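ping. complex inputs:
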Amino acid sequence: MKPDISDEAVELWFGPQHVAAHGWATKLTLVGDYIVECDPNAGYFHRSAEKCLEFRNFRQGALIMERLCMPEAFLAEYPYVQAVEKIAEIEVPEKAKFMRTIMMEVSRIHSIQFWWGQLAGELGLFTMVLWPWIDREYTLDAFEELTGSRHAVTYSTPGGVKYDFTDEFLRRLDLAIYHLENHLGKFKDMILKSPTFKARAQNVGLFSTKEALKLGLSGPNIRACDYPMDLRKDAHDPNLKYDQVDWEVPVLVSEEHGSGMCDAYDRMIQRFNEVDVALQIIRGLLPQVPEGPIIDPKVRAKTNRLPAGEAYGRVEGARGISTLWLKTTDKAQTPYRAKIRGPCFNSYYALKHLMPGLRFADFVLVFGSLDPYVGWWDR
Amino acid sequence: MQFEDFINWLNGIPGWLYDVLVWWFNAIWWWINLLWDSIVIIWASMFGNAEVLAYWFKAIVFPGLVFILLGIIFTVWATRKTWGRIQGRRGPYNLGKYGGLQLFADAIKLIGKESIIPKGAKRWMYRFLPSFLLVIVLLPFVFIPWDTDWVIVDLSVSLVLIFAFLTAIPVISLLAGWISGSKYTIIGGFRAANNQFASEIPLVLSTVGPAMLAGSLSVLSIAQVQADSFWFIFLLPLNFVTFLISAVMSVGMVPFDAPVADSEILFGWRTEFSGIWFVMTYFAEFAEMLFYSAMMVTLFFGGFSGPAFLPGIVIFLIKLMIVMFFFIIVTSSFYRLRQDQIVSFSWKYLLPLTILNILIVMFGMAYFGLYIGG
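pong. complex structure:
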């Protein structure tokens, strides 16, 4: 920093005890109302997930993973399950593959509903906090009917899934989708056409595709820059059924900035596109679910002790690409080492480069538009 | 000869001592008389005749202190219930029928809490400012004409004095943010002062229209003039809108609540106040909201004028509830604006509209002889 402004610079800790800091501590250096430096600090939410995984067997590990990101619970537990299935070389029944895919897309919708509320709360409009969350209640009712719990679902397990679709679940899922679709138009009006939201979110947090790739962003944040990075299409997973539906990767060409740039407003539009694509996939897959078993008990028994090996599980989460690298020793009941990579780590450190030059009040908006969740990077 | 004088002098000492005592006695008696007379005068002026007694009744019971405090409690209750319904929930419903006692429970709980004063805060200012804020917010209520004879004080320049009181409020907010001793509160205090910079001029200028049409600066006269002719809302709809928006900005409620933006600066200049001081700052915000609604009813909706079969005060309260409903809807429909956007919105759009309105009223009065008041 230049020596003459350092006299007026005020250091403010947007610290761990802050309503909108999500558990992070960011040291902001302000000159007047402008942020000059942004220094992210991790670690206030560290729960040693990777170490805990070394003490859980291969069916319990998914529970740790899903608690890293509760809004997208079905998506968060999948990398672990995929890694175990690769090491153990076990087959998954067809029905389970369809069910996993459907529930992962429902989880993506739930995560976006949660995020709409969260961002509106950070921007001060409590009405738009509660309206998406009312619809989220129907989604959570569907989760509860399927798995018995609303947030901490433990659905995928190595070898298949644990719970079958019942008629009651399908009825609740239809109700949840009905409520969501009914209100999408109203949410678009309230958010995208609101003059105050446009005034806050346009031209804020602007970055180009090149910068996004350099910062390691993935998921909706980079798809909003018209860059079709999507693991669901790029890395074909034989255990998921994304190829059975006709769908396109949701990208966005920004109206104001053209292709290759996006600001906070575009990232909001992008997430509406994501919801549309997710609904398309769910609608396409629901009629195709075959009859059959959801897991083979002998295969499940094979996951008691795994041979030595290394595997890499990854999933296109609601916030970006989440991965897990797993290493096992021969005939061990627990992993030797698990390494988790969450997308929000990169989103948060991207603030170091995005924030200087913006005002203090834009901090929560840029932060929120990148969809942060503290579990993914403090682990 | 000398010895005789000496004996005479000795003879006079008891008399002298007696005189000194008498002097002291008279002095004390004089002070006691003074005290008693002043008590008698004050008592006579307070309770001497029926007029003065009526004044004390109006000032304290109705439409004075007790009525205003119950009005503030009603305002908070109505706001919380209506916000709740807009947001898809019910608002408080546990205590009392329809949750009416919730406010009392909140106030009692908060008053019973430990009052924590941060180490970096200035202690006596910290204790003094919230009460001072509440007193200053409650003072302009004396001018509001709830009915023709139910106004506590009617001055010929009451409009000016009202805004003199209201201008002090953001200054107290700035001071409260400063003395709380935290960087977040200082930012909140400065934002409150910035809000005043943005909102006071359109607010005061929006009242010039009704004052010019009524030909008087007294709020009671403005209401009375509307009783005899049309309500000013039909003549000055734009003025009403600018007053509403400037009022929301002046109070500091969403969408202009950057001074108390709870996702950016925790609670702005109110962050550190806990317990009873929180109750005072919280009530001060809703008292301001009640006051601006009452001002809008008086200036634009004719105050107590309406159908003759209802008492004026009831008409006033009905209109007050309608205007408060508008207030509540505006404060729950927009995202929070950034501080510099508030200032730029106010100076670029609100102020020119207000001045345009004044020009329209002036031309109307000059060229069309639209002269309503006396």
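The two ends of chain B are 92 Å apart (CA to CA).
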